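Researcher: Last one for today. Full complex below.
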Amino acid sequence: MSSVPARVLNELFTQKLGTAEGKEKMAEYGGSYVRDRLREVSYTRKILPPEQVTRADCQRSVNHDTLVKIVDIEPQSRAMAITFRGQPTARFIRGSRAEVAFFTISSEMFQKPEQELLAYEMPITKIIEENSVKDMQEIEDREFTIHIEAAVQALQVEANGGTATALNATTLAGGGVVEFSIRKGELARASLTNDATPRALQRPDLVNLFKLLDGNRLKSERLLMTESDWDDVLQWTVEDFGDRLQSETAVDGYKYNTLLGRAYIRTIKTDILRTGNIYVFTKPEFFGKFYVLNNTKFYIDKIANMITFQAWEDIAMSVINIASVRKLELYSGDANPTTNADGLLANFIPKSEDALGAINNRVDAGLKFPQVSQY
Amino acid sequence: MSTIQKVNLEPVSDVLPITRRDFPLADPTLSDPLNAVALVDGEWMTLDANYKLIRAAAIGTPGARATLRSFPLFAERGRYDVRAQADKKMPILFLGSYEFDTRVFDSSVALGSGAAITAVLQPLKVATITVVSAGRNFVGLVGHGGSADTDPIVGYVTRLPSANGGKLRFMSGWRS
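Model: Here's the assembly. Have a good evening.
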């Protein structure tokens, strides 16, 4: 961390913007300020690693000026036992294809008169620039989460005879719903009420989740859960962990890269992946695609004294094989967006884009302690 | 009578000064190009209480007039960048002044106290129209009747379709 004051950095920003060396120099500096919240890199990129593509990899439309990349799906084939005189059945070869469409994720367009920048002692422009990348990755995660939820719900509808069927403690007790791609946790299914309270994650919950996927000639590889659901793992008993691991966990927490043989990804973004929702995925090659057409671009301009800057990226992501994701729900209420039987859906799905990252601090409301006022 | 094509709304003035804002569709299925009433560029939209886009007039009721401030949709039917998003956002011309050519209009009808589109600088309003050649309804521009007409004005004719290759050229301008 440099000792260069942030005020100087803000001045540098106004002087050097538009020059590559100026931007590089600013990247060396940091500042001292109080953070409002943790910002986390994309969990989507850990589950579905992005692939860089170029315009040449994409297809156009004859109807409008947007792009897709067409992805081939593995063709079907099988073998059979036959007699010496018999012959195998024929298969006319056909491979399915799927389109993965591109769109843009952008930061806000930030604007500030250069004189007002001088009022900041923190490198506000640099902070915003760095945070913008993570803000955009938050939107990647939100898009991804909505897509995987749509995938598990679509399979669930199919398994229930093509009818959207509520999945809550009541319908489970009545035997009125099939848990094909979504399963309730053991404590949730034993609940007497349908509510939005996430129950503690137990070891059998995860094993049963794996079985949803492993029973379909696919293999569960990666778990996605919130930090708060992960904390329940730390409560597992000696019967779950065994003597040695229990001792280790009590001191250092759980420090292995796999849990029950599966890699896991934890996130603090509980306004996107809501607590109580745990997903399991296959390896990416069985699952979907995430393409980056244009990596993050940063635009900055100054007209008279008004500085404007914005960042964006052009990406495409798609859950192509919807059977490659399964979900565990640790709450007893219904999270089916069609039925929404308990009226609790808003607790289970990602918040809207403009509601993400609600402010933690209350400084603008005058709440900090001790309270001191300048005169 | 207009003819709906692949591109139905084209700028004549600079688009940079216009605030082109994306809003999620209240009914995301309208972004599906195979929907019988899929949205096309040049249709007129407004905002609902959830800050989402809805058509400015009832699509199933030809002749229904818009009563709220409405904005032209600036995205062609079935665009991939709309379909790719979870929220199915579509851009409208939200703030600023502009001049555009549109194919989504009916110059012959007189709705309410409105009038057929016959003159340059005649005010325009928004209503559900039927385009026979497309076999369906759209929410587009129709002629405003002037002082006797209490419907909101959304723009003014700058070039009549007869002198503009069948497209209606209009400039923005709001009056409730």
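Confidence is low (pLDDT under 50) at residues 23-31 of chain A. The first helix of chain A runs from residue 6 to 16.
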